[in-house]
Amino acid sequence: MATTEITSTNHDQAVADGIVLLDFWADWCGPCHMFAPIFEKASEQHSDITFGKIDTEAQQALAASYGIQSIPTLVAYRDGIPLFSQAGALPGEAVENLIEQIRALDMTEVRKQYDELKAAQQQS
């Protein structure tokens, strides 16, 4: 599966189900261009994962909602829960390792902890 352009219009639906990796990038960003083939290769190897690209220039409000201050930034979701965010161009092995770790998660426990965290944030 190739990468998908993520915008403010399709973002919420895109991250709602399954494993989703989001690459925040910009055309003027050299490290973004170095990371792009790594991200594309991973998207071809893992057809069951959604690989989304977010152009920070075209989607400034969406990038701001994530607090993106450095690009490229990779964000990972599973079943609508944000699990990982890191700035910098990751090597292919690191992307593969991240995917393995996300696949191995006990989502029942993750969902419980996430719900507890959200409840605590709402009370404060």
How many strands, which pairing sense, and closed or not: the largest β-sheet? 5 strands, mixed
Beta-strand portion reads 15-25%
The low-pLDDT segments are none
Mean pLDDT level: 95
CATH homology superfamily name = Glutaredoxin
Please state the overall shape, judged from the principal axes of the Cα atoms.
Answer: globular
CATH fold name, please? Glutaredoxin
- Please report the first level of CATH classification, the CATH class: Alpha Beta
- What is the radius of gyration computed over CA atoms, rounded to a whole number of angstroms? 14 Å
- Give helix and strand order, one letter per element, not per position: EHEHEHEEHH
Strand ordering within the main sheet:
1-3-2-4-5
Protein name: Thioredoxin
InterPro entries: Thioredoxin, Thioredoxin-like_sf, Thioredoxin_CS, Thioredoxin_domain
GO molecular function, one term: protein-disulfide reductase activity
Keywords: Disulfide bond, Electron transport, Redox-active center, Transport
Description:
- This protein has 124 residues and is an alpha/beta fold.
- The protein has one domain: Glutaredoxin.
- Helix content is 46%, strand content 23%.
- The protein contains 5 helices and 5 strands.
- The chain has helices at residues 11-15, 30-45, 60-65, 92-104, 107-123; strands at 4-5, 19-25, 50-55, 73-78, 81-87.
- It has a 5-stranded mixed sheet.
- The longest helix has 17 residues, at 107-123.
- The chain is globular, with a radius of gyration of 14 Å.
Summarize the structure.
With 124 residues, the protein is an alpha/beta fold.
Write the layout of secondary structure elements.
Layout: E1 4-5, H1 11-15, E2 19-25, H2 30-45, E3 50-55, H3 60-65, E4 73-78, E5 81-87, H4 92-104, H5 107-123
Parallel strand pairs: 1-3, 2-3
Antiparallel strand pairs: 2-4, 4-5
